[in-house]
Amino acid sequence: MDNFRGELAIRARVVAMDTNRDPIPTTPIRTHHDLLTLWEAIVGEPGFGRRTLWLSFLDDDHRPMKMILPFDDMPESVDTTGVGRLFDCVKEARVAGTIPYASVVVMFSRPGSGRIREGDRAWARALHELLADQTPRWPVHLATDDGVVVLAPDDLVVGA
Fold it and tell me: For 11-156, CATH number?
């Protein structure tokens, strides 16, 4: 996706999983720990050179689908309008049957330490809000050079 319906230019790489290697867990995602394990498998070794928004999809049985959408070069400050449009496109893809997912799980990655920054909180709040109508409601994750962590509701409070 490039320049979808708006001002925010976002480049997406569709990543199909290599089924010969398939390091991604295929067991259902039922717990927060299962989801953390999924993200750790997707990103592999920590270390990022750019800011990326990652979308993964779960089917009706809560199993990870064999497609991941990483959106590279995301701005440091969240553009809620632009990201909202992105999620509108994802929801339209579901309705059209292009991506027949049951739920979306999201992670934001960036270079640097694992210390949670205000920008991370803003991104997590925006993403959490965009997924508010989804059941089950999965937490947003943050991947940094130090690894992957869940951004718990307490982490989303300004100045936490």
Answer: 3.40.140.10
**CA 142, CA 120: separation in Å to the nearest integer?**
8
The C-alpha atoms of residue 80 and residue 4 are separated, in whole angstroms, by 14
Q: Which residue, chain included where needed, has tokens 């965009």?
A: 130
Residue with tokens 């290697």: 21
Q: Is the pTM of this model over 0.85?
A: no
Q: How many CB atoms lie within 10 A of CB 138?
A: 20
Burial class of 56 by CB neighbour count within 10 A (0 to 12, 13 to 18, 19+): buried
- How do 140-144 and 103-109 pair as beta strands? parallel
| DSSP letter (8 states) at residue 33 | H
Whether the Cβ atoms of residue 112 and residue 142 lie closer than 8 Å to each other:
no
Cα separations (Å) of 147 from 40, 46, 110?
8, 5, 10
Domain segments of the chain: what residues? 11-156
What does the mean pLDDT of the chain come to? 83
Q: Tell me what pLDDT residue 6 has.
A: 42
- Among 159, 154, 13, 158, CA closest to 74: 13
